[in-house]
Amino acid sequence: MLLVVDAGNTNVKFGVFRGETLILQWRLRMEPERTADEYVSLLYPLFAQAGLAFSDITGIVLASVVPAATPSLLRLARHAFGRDPLHVTGRTDLGLRVAYDPPDAVGADRLVDAAAAVHQYGAPCLVIDFGTATTFNAIAAPGPNSGGGGLPVYLGGAICLGIGVSLEALFARAAKIPPVELARPPRAIGGNTIHALQSGIVHGYAALVTGMVTRFRAEMDAPHCPVVATGGHAALIAHETDCITAVEPLLTLEGLRLVYARHHRAVP
Questions:
Q1: 109 catalytic residue (yes or no)
Q2: Domain limits at 227?
């Protein structure tokens, strides 16, 4: 079985694949100072509850955007599971040419998402990840001048505040703004503070997505390329715009599996 680890700014997500099937997944809050031993104490009962042992894991792949947390996760793989993990970076062979400057500066999760989207939808395509940051990612089709040896090209994209971060900042800085449930408002023009906040976030981010997708497609000369959304708020925002082709909640975990398979030819 394969253990995939997606270490993000807010959470660390663990998934277990048997072949191509995701059979289990867990989410732990990201605490950069957490040690490998602490990860063991948290994961061991989760594995036991699922009827699994650490020894059932025969491969591990890790993508981390939190440098302070990466050493502990690597030690977890090597010492608790006894496996040398595939650590995904901007220089890992993902089946893409990375045109970002420098390649190591792009988040590993963005590249993994791109690899998964290309596998499922082809290139050119766009990927939007609604996480701690909302990221837009553009992948071009292979071209005669791409220099990628026939590989799709990860061009880069855009980074803006995530929905959760935006709300937290607003609540912290505006004394009369109450915490609200993040949900679709009844209309764009909010008749009270709660609906006005919901409209600003939901309709505002939908407008952001529509505008950015329009600009990206124009720059890529790909007016109908698919747009794949992932992350915690993807479904909510996708409902408010017609430019998102598909919502894939497990895109990053699936991408990690694909990257591992590319390097090992099979998933254990």
A1: yes
A2: 97-255
